[in-house]
Amino acid sequence: MAIKTTTTFAKKIESTTRLEPKFFLFQTILENAKKKYEFKKLGTISENIIRGQSPKPDTYKDKIEAEVMFIRTADIKKYQINFQTTVYLDKKIFETQKRNRIKGNDILISVVGNYLGSCAVIPSNVKLGVFNDNSARIRIRDKNISPYFVSYFLNSSFGQELIHSLLTRTGQKILSAGNAKKLEIPIIKNNKLETFAKKIEENEIKSLTILQQAQNLFYKKLNIDFSKIKKEKHYSVKLSDFAKDDLWTPAFSYPLYVNTLKAIQNKWQTVPLGEIAIVKKGDEVGSVNYNKYLDKKDTDIPFVRTSDLVNYEVDQFPDFYIPEEIYQELKQDIKAGDILFTKDGKIGMNGMITKNDKVIIASGISRIRLKNEDEKYNSTPEYLFLILSLKETGFYPAIRRTVVASTIPHLREERLREIEIPILDKKSIDEITRLVKEAFELKDEKKKLIKEVREEIDNYFWR
Question: Three-class SS of residue 1?
């Protein structure tokens, strides 16, 4: 193993009050980079860098009830916003929050907590949005500098080292607005990166639009008006009903969940998930084996936890990575087309593995794989994914079977296998399959492009 050494002056240690060798080693690398490229402070190329505001949780709305997107720190991932977890506000709240509004080409960066340093550009199709107080908005005013390049640079390993060199280290780590302004951005014009950036955003917007089309098609073919099913706050259950069921929780008998399934079964055949698919949970490898983004080796494998499902896919750059030897020992056999479904904590999130994914999944996630012999129902992995992505056919059945152990919700494997999958006609299944396949091909291409962008930027500084 090569040993890296660096020297520094006592005055520098006194001025920074830092005693970390890694910090001063990075300062040397930064000084060398400045000999090759022009750098400008972020504060000079952007408008005021501001923290957001957090409205009360009781003001959150479903997407269908509101049109203002509220992006929280956990929604900000490296290179993208997780629209699968964002919540919404009504316009009255939006009108009171003039200071922290966002628009296309703004950069959001998390400045506090576990996701500190992750940043993403707001896509051009986001019209009304605000963000919370653990995040900051960067709005590039220099027209010659791309917000995408700034975001991609900050997400690179070099950019992340730069961010962490400026953190306030008293108690909780924080990137203050003042320190964010000091971030030094290289001024590098790269037309290839600009082309990639446009293609990455285009693929993500298009893939999510196509998935929405597939969901709409399913609802149309299903032909059930779910809005007519009442959301009752008070209900009673006959004693005889308990005799035939072995799960005695309020959620299991909740009329909205029960009547939604009845409405589907009155029109369509359903089959238990366990009859057509193999369900297998992931593994908990122990936090002692976790490596963070900046500490990982090139051979380390992304470790996907329940918070790492982003826009129906696995996060390319999750919080933690696991050594290759553990990946080989576990032999989880995760491959393209597998469906992931969260069973602990935040129940009912799902995604699909693509060709460019090589991951280890945590024990809070189940891998769902269609059985090879499933020709009887004409089902496909893409169709099964879509069913599990919907509220009425994925989330409701999962929550109905969830129990709370201590304070954490759990959905056991055998309960997950009980979820009833509606079987549409073959033509409809084929149409839905085609759309979902197209969406995930775009996602896979996007991941490949992001990987190339990251490697290209890192090569500027580490080679």
Answer: coil
Cβ atoms of residues 360 and 305 within 8 Å:
no
CA distance 119 to 112: 12
- Rounded CA separation 416/275 (Å): 11
Q: Which amino acid is at 130?
A: V
> Please, are residues 254 and 400 in contact by the beta-carbon 8 Å criterion?
yes
- Give residue-wise pLDDT tens across range 398-412: 999 999 877 889 999
* Cβ within 8 Å of residue 235, ≥6 positions away: 253, 254, 255
Q: Where are the domains of the chain?
A: 37-189, 224-435
Of the CA atoms within 13 Å of residue 82, those in its CB half-sphere come to: 27
> What pLDDT, in 10s, does the model give residues 26-85?
778 888 899 999 999 999 999 989 999 888 888 888 776 678 899 999 999 999 999 999
Q: Which helix (H) or strand (E) holds 26?
A: helix 21-36
DSSP string, 350-376: EEE--TT---EE-TTEEEEEE-TTTTS
Q: What's the pLDDT band for 274 if we cut at 50, 70, 90?
A: very high
CATH class as words, domain 37-189: alpha beta
Q: What is the signed CA dihedral for 146, 152, 155, 159, rounded to 10 degrees? A: -70
pTM reported for the whole predicted model: 0.90
Q: Are domains 37-189 and 224-435 of this chain identical in fold?
A: yes
Q: Which CATH class is domain 224-435?
A: alpha beta
